[in-house]
Structures are given as structure tokens and as C-alpha cells.
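writing this on my phone so excuse typos. first protein, seq and then structure
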Amino acid sequence: MGLPGQMTPATSAGSAYHPAPVFSPIPPQLYPFPSSIDRLDFSDDQLITPVSPACSSTAAVGESCLTLSAKVGLSPILVSASEAGLREIPCMVTLTGTNRSIDEIERERTGTDLVCVIDVSGSMSGGKLEMAKHSLSFIVDNLCAKDRVALVVFDDVAHRLCPLTICDEVGRSSIQHTISTIHTNGSTNIESGLQLGLKVLQDRRVVNNLSALFLLSDGRDTCGNDPLARCSKTLSAGQRQGGGVLVHTFGFGNDHDSMLMSALAEEGGGGFQYVEQVEGIAGAFATSFGGVVSIVAREVEVRITANEGEEVPCAVSRLYVRTGLDYFSLPFITANEHKDLIFLLTLPSPALSSPITISPVSLQLTYKDVAGVQQRQETKLTLSLHPAAEEIRENIEEDVYINWYRVKGAEALSAAEEIANAGRLDEARDGLGKILAEMDAAVVQTAPLVRQMRADIEESLSRLRDMQSYHSGGSAHMSSLSSNHYYQYCSPHTQVYSTMQQTTYTIRSTATVPPNYSSFTVPAHPSQASLPERHASPRFGPPQFVPPGLSEPSTGLPAMPAPKFGPPAMPPAGLPKFGPPTMPPAGLPKFGPPPFAVQAPKFGVPLTPVPQPAGERSASPEEEQPQEETS
């Protein structure tokens, strides 16, 4: 059968290897960055046969995984030859993913290769890391034998804790155990974690249907100059070699590098989530996970071309895109999701004697379904023009104008962030004030999405009151809002874009969070200079359990030893599994072994206290003290 941690040949169909039961993971190797990372070989992924998704078979018989539609913001449009100049009309392209229930998604979805890259630097200690571990465990529990997961952690160097492992029952057990052994140490080198995570995907022998990378950090890259340029270069190279990897980033707390995390998510085609509180990590991970496992279309592009020979010539004056391209480009669309893309159409003022209908532009949609099959659709935008002399009114297409203000608000947030980064807070506030005034005068000002956008802009204004407030979460808040509103991504601050499956996974994840997580107090991060003076803990494996009174070196007493690897050390009976340790229960000695024997653990079974007979129990220090005689 092989030693623990080795792969043995599989006997079932669908994969060439299955892992042997792993309950004591092989100690991870250290991967210094960047001198030796290019020489690493991660072609030890467990072999798997990608599952053909159901969507490709339905597309073959005429059912598409994605539908295309377009509409203009006014209907009809009144024109008059007496009006000079051109008129700009907002228009909208809507892409809708096929409707599916959560059962259909889980039953028919394609397989995914997921690499989770987690910051384990010293500032992640306490509730932050425990919640991140809970979130990882939730994701692993909801994967199946057509998925694979690899774990990468980083502090000042990066570590791969396990290869791409098939998430069958045995594989999930192995991964869960590995997750339980993670704890914090060191400084923050985001670039090393990102590069190692991408390297795992580049070197794999089998490429699954979908590939994704989750990157979580609560700090700033402290291991080199210009981390944005370095990480962007790393991601660009990784995407060229690995191909089609979706990168979702999670910035935790108010001191992370929001510009870096947002830029990596945008370049990687994923979402950036700003997680302000510890308890928000679970929902953020579950939201992104719900999106990844329900993707129905990738490499989505919409091109707009003018139709020749129309009676009234029109032209596209602007596309609301951040890529600088002359077409819309989306990395993916999920089931039950719709994306609304806005562009402006310029219209002259011709002399009309009667109403006419024109189709000035055509829209071509191309995408790949999850089986990699290229799909194509086409439609035309139709305008109804009426002479202005007729007694008829223009009707507003509210959803077009609502989404127009959505992207304008997102652009205003992005511009304000850029100005604030240059230290010009007054100018940034003025820019946001102008878009608020424009929204207040809009005919769709009472629409829920416009009201949500307005509230988010007002919240951003409050975070621009001074530089301290801006740099203490304000920048991250604005960056997340701008990106997620623009691309209609769900996040803790933009739940309005949540799909059915994202809502379902978020509810499931947060429902399993232990109640005492909400009361975590995250300890202050010691300075880098003081780190060597604190208790030495293994980089991986369970944290050492230090009884009360032994938490500082000044006591002169050594901490209880803990194994570097193996099952997590259980605290004595009466102490909570999570949160800061409390004083020992009455009757237990403060130091020394507890007054009970410990049953030898079986694989996967936590250590269980077994009380000894009363006559064999050793007396506590309090019991050894002589009792005073009472009269």
C-alpha cells in the first residue's frame, strides 16, 4: 500500500492515482524565493480524468449555456431636424447564464483545480488564521472526486503543504488534516506565495476543466521594492504558462495592500474582496467558491459593429470597459448570473416625416463553454425613431439607466481612489460629490441599486475625511466597491449581485462557524524586530499549547513541547478549542501533567481524556498544603 503520503495506483475509473490515507503529513520543504523556485518540479499532481460537463451536451442540440440580448435606453426616440449636434443614448448588452438549481449545479458541474494561497505571517495569528482555516475546510468539504486542491502558505518564504489532491473521501481527510496543522510565523512575501501557487498549476500533468487560485493576505509585501510591479509580472508570466487561471483575492483587515490585491484580481479575471472583520472571511470564501464551481462560460467577448445601409447612421461613442479594448471582455459567467454591459450610441437629428425602425449596430458574442467548445451568438440593436412633432413621449428603459449610473459610480470611486492616493483628498471628495448630485437628479434615483451605489459613495466620502481614515481601511473599501460594482461581483459589501448558489454556499459556511469565533480579539502583531525574542514555534504543525503564566519568556519557564506534525494538541478538559485559553478548572494544577490519563488516539480521532480512579490520582499542589485546624 505504500507509506503515508505516497500515491498508490488507483483501481477506480476517473483517475490514475488515489492517495493513501494521510494523517501525519510529510514535513513541508522550504522554497526560498526567488533563487530556486524555477528549478522546482511540481509534476506530482494526482492524476484525474476531467469530467465532461452537461452544458456541452445541451449546447450541441441547440441549448446555449449563455444568452445575449440588447436594448436601448429610450423607446421611442424623438428626433428633430432643428436640433443641432449629436445625441448620446445609453444602451445595454445583457449576458445571462443558464438557470440551474443548486442540486443541478453540484450534480452536473465540471471539475476544478483549486490552489489556495494563504498568508501565515505573524499578523495573521489568532482569530484571523482560525477563520481562514475554517473557510478552507468548508471549501474542501464541498468538493468531490472530480476536483483537486493544493495548499500553499507563505510568510517570508513560500511552502507547498500538499500537491493537487483528488477530493474524494480519502483526499479530503488528508487535506483537512493538513489544514489543521497550519499556524503563523514570519513576515509577508506575497510574491513568493503567488509564484509558488501558479507554479503548482503550471507543472501539473493533467489540466482539469477549470483552474482557480485563491489568495488571502492581511498585510503588505515587505520583502522587496515595488510589490505591485513584481506581482503583476509574476501573474502575467504564470497566466501565459498555466493558461486560464482565475485569481480571486481576499484582503483582510485595514492594513493590507488593496491596490495590489485589486490589481491582481482584475488581471487574473477574478474578484477582489475586502474582508473587514474576522467573521467575514467565511462568507467571502464561500461567495467566490460558489462562483467558481458554477461557471458556464469562459473567455467571453462581445463586439459591436456598425450596420451599413441604414437610413439614419449611428456610431458607438463609448464602451464602459476598464481594459482599454474596443470590445467587452469577461473572464467568465456563472449559472443564474447576468452581466449588464453599457455603451453609448451617438445619433444625429434627421428630418423624419413618419416613424421608422433602424438596426444601426450588430452584436457578436463568442465564448467557450466549460468543455472548451467555442460558441457564437449574434443579435441586432433596434431603435424606434419618431418625429418630435408627434404627440408622443420618450419612455425610459429604467434598467439601462440604472446600470449606466452603476458604472458611472464605479468609475467615480476608482478616480477618487487614484486622486486620494496622491494625497489630494479635497479633490477626491469633490469628484464623489459631483456623481452624487448627478444621481440625485436622475429619473432612477429611487431604484434599489442606485440607492445602494449612493450609500456606498457616501460611506467612501466618510473614509476620505483624513489620510489616517483613508489608509485605515478607506482605500481597501473604495477599491473593492469600485471593482465589484463595475463587474457586478458579489462581495461582503456588494451582496446585491449575489447569485442563488453564492447565497446558498454563504449560508452554509457561516452556519458552521463556531459561536465563539465572533468574540475573537485579534492580538496585536509584534514588530518584526521582536519576533525572534518570542517563543519559537514550528512553522507548521499545531501551535504549542502554553499554559497560563508561561506565555512570555520573562517567566523563565519553558513552554510545553508540541510535535511539529501530527494531530493538533488538545487543551486540557475545560479549556475552549477556540479563543484565548482560560484558567484551569478548579482542582487542576496550574502546571505539570493533568490528573488524567490520555487514551492513545486512532487515526483521525481527537485525543480523549480518560479519568483515572480516584485512588490513583496524584494530589494537586493545593491539596498538598496542610489544612488549618478549625475550632
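second protein below, same order as before
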Amino acid sequence: MLHCLTVTPLLCVCLIFGGLLSHAVAETRTVAASRAKGRAGPDAAAARPTRGLEVVSIRDRQGQPAILYRASYALVIGVSGYTDWPRLPGVLQDLTAVTTVFEAQGFQVEQVRDPTLDDLRRAFDNFINQYGQVEDHRLLIYFAGHGHTLKPKYGGEMGYIVPVDAPNPQRDEAGFRARALSMQEMETYARRIDSKHVLFLFDSCFSGAIFALSRAVPDYITYKTSRPVRQFITSGQADETVSDVSIFRQQLVAALQGEADQDGDGYVTGAELGEFLQQKVTNYSRNAQHPQYGKLRDPYLDKGDFVFTVARATPLEPSAPSVADLQAQAEAQRQQGVPQKLQAEQDRRRPGQEKLQGGGSPQGTQVAVGVYPQPPTTPTQQYRRALVIGNTTYPDRPLANPANDATDMAALLRRLGFDVTLLRDADKATMERAVEDFTRGVPRGSAGLLFFAGNGFQVAGVDLLAPISTYHSSNDVQDRTIAVSWILERMDKSGMDVKLLIIDTCRHNPFGDGRTQTPSQGLAIMHPSKGSFIAYSTSPGQLASDGTGRNSPYTAHLLREISVPGHTIQLLFQKVREGVYQETNGQQIPWESSSLIGDFIFAR
């Protein structure tokens, strides 16, 4: 019945938005996304048909209605497979992470991966024509990819976002101008939308005069909040060096999970989000990265404020910088300290990575979208990555707690220094992509953790985790589930030194169709490879309780014990086993199988 785990990182570069907003926006960010068959344009969007249709009512501090969103839609764009620019292999993890948090906010999400300029324009046109003509729709546009700034001959600066087919301007500036999307064109899209509230998020860096920078303290929600607005947030300023690990994306996820609700009213406004990201990213990057935020320079489109809702049962502690954050900071400082002569020589030797005007070299200014850095040499700074999955809304076997279990586990692991990806209610294709991303590009000596909460089966002695689907026969189970052994095999091949699987799930095999010798309950025994630790919420042949509180008994005890400083993994799970055994009156006994060499400690 229960949960799963996490994974995430990203990449960026710097650019400059010219002529639309009032001040320099952040650095250009680059993101990568995998190509589907051929090039994936707007048709590659994958959105749940029921997403986005929820009516969202926003109230002021007196409880009076202030805003009514009748539907919410997000366009998420990631560019990775460049041919004339450095590729950005970590964008997929960014897209997965932001899509998950946007869907949790009630948005119907459309993804576009590796678009050409024509694909990009078509995506904007289709999105605006389909969703942007209704006043009470809430629209969000997210871009991760390379950005660049040119200086026109008449003066000033013009920023561009870079599609997959744009040439390198150092070799073909005219071709770049023809195949990149300028901020003037972006402003035109912003003005074409009839919906009142539109937010643009760029995990990229640029400068220019597109929007007026905000400096005021975010105000409370009032009737004025409902007035039209076009808001922009970028991950840094032009000319800043941004590292491989996206602190911006990590803090964006934390912000929308509630940390940016500065006044405790249950909402996060666009102004609050911008202020939060500016403070947190600047702090965690050790002053190497400075997000910018503001509103379009237009008296008719700068009065309102975009609003997210915050729904959580327990308050989250402020997110601390992870090991990945610290590595990003060190890399940024290292890049900034490279002598100009040496840096120029490095740029000269890198094909396709020449130093770009206004933004440094594409390589040096990439922000972590998903390319993971090399781990530090000391054991206490071991790079840690997690994929956390919680599946609840099964059509025929719905559960109560997996989404809560996964959300709480992801928040805790993030505070313990893991680079976390959180999935909720994921289908098979989404889970498989997440596992592939989780096990790709892993630094030597790192630790990986996968946590799953949800339904599970055991057929013919094989442990199977259940994505969101219907299950009416053993054929359904075989075709629609994911084997735990396949996940462990992926982790083995990734090069992780420490491989942790925590499975809070149980199900018997209810289908007596001859697939097993005898109907079998619970999950089968697995024998982990070297450096592996597999923990189940119950022992072989038994079922696990979903619980009556916010969390399952297993996850509740795990959350409590995992944060105790100094607990070795063996002691931690012994404490969990004792607690679950007592709470369930001996009906449930957690079980582990380990081939770890040495100790592993979650909290120091």
C-alpha cells in the first residue's frame, strides 16, 4: 500500500531579455529534455485530461472572495539536445520535478521537449489560442534551456531563448538571430493573452528592459490582486556564472510546497515567490547567483499578482542547501576565480563552447538542470540522490496515505542533503522515465535512494510495484507494473556505491489464473547486490497497514528515526521495526536485506 522515492537536478546558461521589461533579468538557464521519436514539438505534451479544471477561489484576510481561477494551465519547455551548443543532459529531471509540483498545484501541464524555433512558436500559439482566451484562466509558462544576449548596433541589449536548432552566434550571428526567439517576440505573446494572470518562469539568465524589477515587500491579498498582471522570474542576472546543479529549481519546488508563504495566509503570490527565490538562491549560491523578478512595463498589466495555494497538513521546515547546492557554489566560485587567460584557452579548446558576449561561456554558465557534479572527497560530503514516489489514486484500489508519505519523505530527505525528485500518482511510463533519469549520470562514490509508497504485487515470485492503472488479472499486473529487480539493476549499472530501496507497499496476488503455484501474499525475498540495502514495510508473505493517520505506521516511524543524528542504517531500521511491531500489536514486522559494506548515516 505505500510509497516511493526521489530524484532530481538540472543545467543552465545565461541570456539577456532585451526591450520588454525594465531591468536585467537573471542569467540564462539551459535545460535538457530527451527527444521522443524525432523532434518533440507541442504535440509531445502529456497532460492528464482532468488536470487544470479545478476551480480555485482565493480569499483575502477577511475571508472575502478576491480571485476566482476557473482553470489552470502550464506550458513546460525544456531544451537539451542542442547540436551547435553544449548539450544539457539533466533537463529531463527538471521537467519531471516542475511538472510534479505544478500538477500538485492543480495545473494541467503540457510539456514540449527539444523544440525547434518553429516548434516553439507553434507551442506558444497553440497554448495561447487554446487556454489564453478566457479571462479567469491561470497560465504559467516555464522555460529551461540556453539563453543568449546580443547587442544591437543601435545600442542596448536584446535577449533570446535558444531553440534546439539555433546556430552558435559566434559562428553565425545572422543565422542565430533568425533561429532564436527574442524577448520582443516573448512580450508580444504576453500581450496576446486575455487571461488576467500569467507567470513566466525562466531557469535562465538575461538582462534587458522587459520588466520592472520589484523591491517592495509583498502585500496581502486584496481585491487589487485580481487585476491583470504579467509577471516574470528568472534564475539569475546576466554575466553571472551558474553551476551545474539548479538551486533555482530546488527552491522553486520548496517554495510551492509552502515555504514561500511569508505571511502564513495559505497562499504564495508571484511577488512572494520572487522574493523567496531571490533570498534563498542568493544565499545558497553564496552570492554567486541573483534571481530577478518583476512585472511587465505596462500600466494595464502590472497591478495584479499571480497566486498559488498552499495545502499541507504539517508545516515544513525551511529547506537547507543540499550537498548539490554546496557543490554548485564551489564550482561557481571556482569558475569565477579562473584567470582570464586560462579561461580563454579553455574556451578555445572546447568546440562549440566559445565565450559568448554578455553571458560567459555556455559551459561555464550552465545551471544544474540535471548534470550531476563529481562528489566531494570526504565521506561526510558524499553526493546523495533520491527518487520518491507516492501512488494513491488507483481506480480500483485507492489508498489513503502514499501521497502524504512521499511528500513528507521528500521534504525530510531534502533537508538531509539529498537531491530529491518527487513523483505522485505516476503512471508506468512516468515512473520508468524517472528511474532512468535517477540512474543516469551518477557521480562515482555517490548514494542513491528510492522510496516507493503505493500498491504492490507478487506474481511468480517477482516483486512488482504498481503505477497508477487498473489491475483486473495477472496479465494486467505483468504488463502494467515495474519489477523491483529492474530498478535495482538500473541502480547497480549507474555506478552508485550505496543503493537504498525503501518499499512501503503490500498486496497479495488476487488473481488465481495459474501464474503462481499457489496464491501468495506479500512481497518475495530479494537478494541485493554489493552495496545495496532493501527495506520492506513488512516481512515476506505478509501484508502492510496503510494506517489511519496522515502516514502509514511504517513511514511514520521511518520519518521519526531517520532524522536522529548518528543513527547507523542498521540501528535506524531496527528502531523502525520495533516501533511498527508494537504499534500493530505484532501483526506487521518490517524486513530488510543488506549487502552494505560499512555504515551509512542519514543525519549527522
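Confidence is low (pLDDT under 50) at residues 1-51, 214-218, 312-380, 513-524. thats all i got for now
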